[in-house]
């Protein structure tokens, strides 16, 4: 076998290998295979698994339908004109049925073209409805509103927002200093109010104790006075009886009654 034949056979073998290698595609799990035939997008995407395709004529663009995470830094101005920046985390995925449209209209950079600008716009739109302090105190509500606004902007492109989270808010140094001063003032006020309440409780307890002691002392005095009055009454009654008896004795002439019931009393002197 001459050299030319060997080269020809090798070339055919290589061509066959290349032909075989380009005549099928394997779509990974959780993905869609968008078929392009001579550059034209086929609107029916391939599901995960093994698929045949026309070599050299057809190519397949793999689009992930799994949940992906995108972290974004967004800046906005609040209702009270405070500048705020925030770190935002978005969990999203591309709908399988929208995979071909994503490839056709947006391409691989759909996140930079649609998602990231939509996050920025949603953050600015919602932040303008709240004051800086409300963004902090009503963080959950603000996050939910931003998520709903974001969904309105990206759903039409087949991007589904699974989860939205505001990692943190950052304000100007002046605002942070004002917030810190307010918190210190509130803490001092709470401390003062607590001390005042404690003082009131202690004063009320002391007053109550003094009242109880005064009532007990008054009751003891009343009982003592009543006992003295009762003693004086008994003494008075006893003295009255004694005085009456003494008066009778003083008025007695020493003579016994002569008769009782009309009968003469015996003469105790011995006279007839």
Write the layout of secondary structure elements.
Layout: H1 3-21, E1 24-27, E2 31-37, E3 40-41, E4 49-52, E5 58-64, E6 68-77, E7 83-94, H2 99-105, H3 110-127, H4 132-137, H5 139-154, E8 159-171, H6 173-251, E9 259-260, E10 263-264
Antiparallel strand pairs: 1-4, 2-3, 2-5, 6-7, 7-8, 9-10
Helix pairs in contact: 3-5
Write up what this structure looks like.
The structure is a single chain. With 272 residues, the chain is of the alpha+beta class. It folds into 3 domains: 3-63, no CATH class; 68-171, Band 7 domain (Tetrahydropterin Synthase, Chain A, 2-Layer Sandwich), CATH 3.30.479; 173-234. The chain has 6 helices and 10 strands. The strands form 4 sheets. It has a 3-stranded antiparallel sheet. The longest helix is centred in the last third of the chain and has 79 residues, at 173-251.
Task: List its traits.
272 residues; Tetrahydropterin Synthase, Chain A; single chain; 23% strand; 3-stranded antiparallel β-sheet
